[in-house]
Amino acid sequence: MKTSYETRYASSPKAVKKYDTEELREEFLIENLMQEDQLVLVYTHYDRYMAGSAVPVAGPIALETIDPLKSSYFLERREIGIINVGGDGTVEVDGEEFQLTLKDALYIGSGKKEVVFKSNDKNNPAKFYLNSAPAHTSLPTIKVSKADANKIELGSLETANHRTVNQMIIGGIVETCQLQMGMTELKTGSVWNTMPAHVHDRRMEIYYYLDIPQDQAVCHFMGEPQETRHIWMQNHQAVISPPWSIHSGSGTSNYTFIWGMAGENLDYGDMDVAKITELR
C-alpha cells in the first residue's frame, strides 16, 4: 500500500484574476483520486481541510498520518467523513467494523487511532472518498446510509437544475466539530448545480464529481461573483472552493457531486446568494 499526498496553499482573489487555465487547474483541481491500492490525500490551507481517497484492491489500506499533520496518528486532532462511491466495503475503526454499500457515509471523530479500509470484492472494489477537518473534541462514530439522509428537493426541470440534496454528515443527523458532507443528485434532463450561485465567507468547500457518463464532462464555475472562471472536470475529480468563491457547475449530462465543507460555523444555510443576472 502506498500513501501519496500534496499540499495546496491558499490563493487570494486578486491573484486568481491573473491565473491562466493551467494555473487554475494546478491550484484548485484534484485529478488523481481513486488510485487503486493507494491512500491519496490533498492537504489544503483553506481551513486546514483535506480531501482524499482509498481504493483497496490487493489488500486493506490504513489511514496513515502524513508529515504536515505532525501527529502520531491521522485522527489525533482531526475528524473525518467517508462516502463509498464504489462496491461494497468495510471501514474498521479501532477494531469495530462498519459496512458501507454504494453511497453510504461514515463519520469518525477525533481520537480513533486505527482506521482501515477494505473491499468486500476486489473485482468490484469499494471507492472511499474522504474529507477531513481539524477537531477540538472526540465525537462518536456514526454510519449514515443514503436512506438516512435529510433530503431536500430543489430547482426544476424548466430551469435545468432539478436536484435532490442528501444531507448526510450534518447537524440533526451527526454531531461534528466543523465538518459537513452530503451528496447532490441531478435529475435526468437537469445539468446545473448550485444555481443561483453563492459564496459563504465563513466556510470553504470542496466538490467531488461522480456519475458523469463516459465522454461527458462538467464545467465547474468558480471565482468572485463578478470575476468568474471555469474548470472542465471529469468523473471522480474534485475541486477546491475558497471561501470567497462561488461554486457551481453545468454538465453535458446529469451527474452527482459530493460536497464537503468546514469553517467558522455549522449553519448550512449561511450563504450569500449571487443573483444570476449579476454574475460576470
Automatic annotation (TrEMBL):
Binding site for Zn(2+): H198, H200, E205, H247
Class of enzymatic activity (EC top level): isomerase
Keyword Ribosomal protein: no
Keyword Zinc tagged: yes
Gene3D superfamilies, per the entry: Jelly Rolls (2.60.120.10), pectin degrading enzyme 5-keto 4- deoxyuronate isomerase, domain 1 (2.60.120.520)
Alphabetized GO MF terms: 4-deoxy-L-threo-5-hexosulose-uronate ketol-isomerase activity; zinc ion binding
EC number(s) on file: 5.3.1.17
Keywords: Isomerase, Metal-binding, Zinc
Pathway: Glycan metabolism; pectin degradation; 2-dehydro-3-deoxy-D-gluconate from pectin: step 4/5
Cofactor(s) annotated in UniProt: Zn(2+)
Biological process terms in GO annotation: D-galacturonate catabolic process; D-glucuronate catabolic process; pectin catabolic process
Cofactor note: Binds 1 zinc ion per subunit.
Function summary: Catalyzes the isomerization of 5-dehydro-4-deoxy-D-glucuronate to 3-deoxy-D-glycero-2,5-hexodiulosonate.
Entry similarity comment: Belongs to the KduI family.
UniProt cross-references to HAMAP family, sorted A to Z: KduI
Name of the protein: 4-deoxy-L-threo-5-hexosulose-uronate ketol-isomerase
Species name: Algibacter amylolyticus
Upper lineage: Bacteria, Pseudomonadati, Bacteroidota, Flavobacteriia, Flavobacteriales
